[in-house]
Design goal:
By secondary structure, this protein is an alpha/beta fold. The chain folds into three domains: 90 residues, Arginyl tRNA synthetase N-terminal domain (Gyrase A, domain 2); 68 residues, no CATH class; 121 residues, Orthogonal Bundle (Isoleucyl-tRNA Synthetase, Domain 1), CATH 1.10.730. The protein contains twelve helices and seven strands. Strands 1-2-4-3 form a four-stranded antiparallel beta sheet. A three-stranded parallel beta sheet has the order 6-5-7, covered by helices on one side. β3 and β4 form a beta hairpin. The longest helix has 23 residues. The protein is flat, with a radius of gyration of 23 Å. It catalyses: tRNA(Arg) + L-arginine + ATP = L-arginyl-tRNA(Arg) + AMP + diphosphate.
Length: 349
């Protein structure tokens, strides 16, 4: 269960409590779900009880007590604990959550994390004639598009001796002004050049160096593409051993193998949806955030891959099939994220 899905589960619990007459409130449009803070417990926490306490005319602890049974019986939830002053701390059913997440990624493929949160929204940006601004606008348009919105790019006219009238543009136009690259990134090639321009935050000065071409783990782009290629390789090797991926069985997202990777993959929809919740002036950093997230997924994937295939005379088991499914899901997320940055994800590297 992803944080986005858990947020919907929390709202469903509120709706059920209202329908049962235990709460007299308007069901909010959104429930905030975060990692537990100091003193918290479980996998996630929500402050929905604090949010509803005043309109319900009850204390946050009382609202939390009302909501707890509805949340506890929700699919994918293993338990709910209440902590002061009224936080609901939610523990997930790891096996069910891991299986559901991997099945969802397999079903949605490269569109995992896409939504209609920005459906009908059109954003206008002005882009100067600058390589980094152009690449940033293109990647931002892809991410906004993944959330159902549309980015209209207006190019600033170059300075000429003969002035000409500019096409009309919206008054609310946002101008992209990332720190320019110190030199032409073209010699790096298409993919490395885009990564060099997108990986740093827009206000940071990008490095246009051959480091982006180095085939070693010191190069973040290499780690991301290598991790993706490795997931494809283990699939080919598993086929050679006579087995394929199958979500379920022994959890690959439990307390041991795959726990960190599972959490990272579950966070992918939130990373993409962030662009829908931030002011436009901050949303321009979405490509950089996505790039850094992909590096974290790649590192988690590379750490997890050694346990996927059987070792020595070991026979493939349900655990291996489940781990392979999680590894393939990670490869899908890496490929989908790179495509939103306009970067290729090769199967062989």
């Amino acid at each position: 269960m992803t944080p986005v899905e858990l947020s919907r589960t929390v709202l469903h619990a509120v709706r059920r409590a209202v329908d049962a007459g235990e709460l007299s409130v308007a069901v909010p449009a959104r429930a905030v779900v975060t990692l537990p803070g100091p003193g918290g417990a479980g996998d996630y926490a929500t402050n929905i009880a604090l949010q509803l306490a005043r309109p319900a005319g009850q204390t946050p602890l009382r609202v939390a007590e009302v909501l707890r049974p509805y949340l506890s019986h929700a699919e994918g939830v293993a338990g709910v604990e209440i902590t002061e002053p009224g936080f609901l701390n939610i523990s997930l059913d790891r096996l069910a959550a891991s299986t559901a997440l991997v099945e969802r990624i397999r079903r949605e493929g490269l569109r995992y994390g896409h939504s209609d949160a920005l459906a009908g929204c059109v954003f206008d940006v002005r882009v100067p004639y600058d390589a980094r601004a152009e690449v940033l606008a293109d990647a931002l348009a892809r991410i906004v598009g993944s959330q159902g919105g549309r980015l209209v790019i207006h190019h600033r006219e170059p300075v000429t001796d003969t002035p000409r009238p500019l096409a009309p543009v919206p008054e609310t136009l946002l101008t992209l002004r990332p720190t320019p690259a110190p030199e032409d990134p073209t010699p790096l090639g298409h993919d490395a050049a885009r990564w060099a321009l997108l990986y740093p935050a827009p206000h940071d000065r990008p490095r246009i160096t051959a480091d982006h071409l180095v085939q070693r783990e010191s190069n973040p782009l290499f780690r991301v593409r290598y991790a993706h290629a490795r997931t494809r390789a283990v699939s080919r090797n598993a086929a050679g051993l006579g087995f394929t991926a199958q979500p379920g069985g022994e959890t690959a997202g439990g307390e041991t193998e795959g726990a960190g990777l599972f959490s990272l993959l579950a966070d992918h929809p939130r990373i993409l949806a962030t662009v829908a919740r931030l002011p436009r002036s901050q949303a321009v950093a979405a490509p950089s955030r996505l790039a850094r997230y992909l590096v974290a997924v790649a590192d988690g994937t590379l750490e997890f891959l050694p346990v996927v295939l059987p070792r020595g005379a070991e026979k493939p088991s349900a655990a291996h099939r489940a781990r392979l499914a999680l590894a393939e899901a990670a490869g899908t997320v890496l490929a989908g994220g790179l495509s939103l940055l306009g970067i290729d994800a090769p199967d062989h590297l």
